[in-house]
Amino acid sequence: MTTLASRLAEVDGSIAEAARSAGRDPGEIARIVVTKFHPAALVRQLHDLGVRDIAENRQQELTAKRDELVDLGDMRWHFVGQIQSKKARAVRRAASVVHSVDREKIVHALEDPAADPIDVLVQVNLTDDPQRGGVAPEHASRLAETIAAADSLRLRGVMAVAPLDERPAAAFERLAHCAENVRAVDAGATWISAGMSQDFVEAIACGATHLRIGTAITGPRPPQD
Ligand SMILES: *Cc1c(COP(=O)(O)O)cnc(C)c1O
Known about the structure:
Oligomer: single chain
Structural class: alpha/beta
Radius of gyration: 17 Å
Number of domains: 1
Bound molecules: pyridoxal-5'-phosphate
CATH topology: TIM Barrel
Mean pLDDT: 97
Strand order of the largest sheet: 7-6-5-4-3-2-1-8
Distance between the termini: 31 Å
């Protein structure tokens, strides 16, 4: 096995174990591989290993990799980065799922009544720092209502990144509470996108349905430009 294959297998084993110890079915948890800063060739290797969910956090990189890998027709591309409204259309064209919708302006910029609906999540800020991405937890339901009213967007649930200065489990509990409020807006909004290389076990214990895992699978990221 290559190093990539063995890291992928190891992470998948840990996901299954964490799911079972939380009394959950591992089959209900999606593992998305975050490939930012890595070349398209790595995404192709992951596809060969059976990976079908890939995430990027910059629009230009997402668009470039997707264009380079058009032949991988069954790949689902997820966008997890901050969105500028002038780039929202390009994000929409390249992504099947947008995890990082955190304000009304982005909801409107992502809309495209002529296109098939895409899946979107409300990104929640679990820190006290308003500069970090995400809507404040108390405003998540209102943003969810705006998304639910947009015909070309499908409200799927919530997304968050754990703060650095707090136990991830405590933060993910708050996210689970937000997820309940968002589900009250639309019963189909059942996704909780949480858990990265360092904290996916805690995220699974708190109900995460979509894990975004980078370095634990890909190895260290090349330096960014
Ligand atoms: C980079 C990134 C990840 C993956 O982080 P790792 O620590 O490498 O697993 C997950 N979510 C978001 C939003 C990211 O930007």
